[in-house]
Amino acid sequence: YVLDRFPHSVIKQVNKDGSHRIEIPANNGYGVKMWLLEQGAHVKVISPKYIQKYLIDNMKQTLSYYDISTTK
User: Is residue 52 within 8 Å of 45, Cβ to Cβ?
Assistant: First the structure.
């Protein structure tokens, strides 16, 4: 599915649990961010950190609508 959406992506590693590490060459556009948010728990952004921060901040904001605390 990722390779369909981002055809220049490269599978860097296949893990024992069946998950994959995929390098996606993409811009910093709104479409990429929205696509990542749509994936929810199916993806983990490792880098760049600013995209990771964007996703975390967005998820925290969404959880706050339901009075769910994100502090430990």
Answer: yes
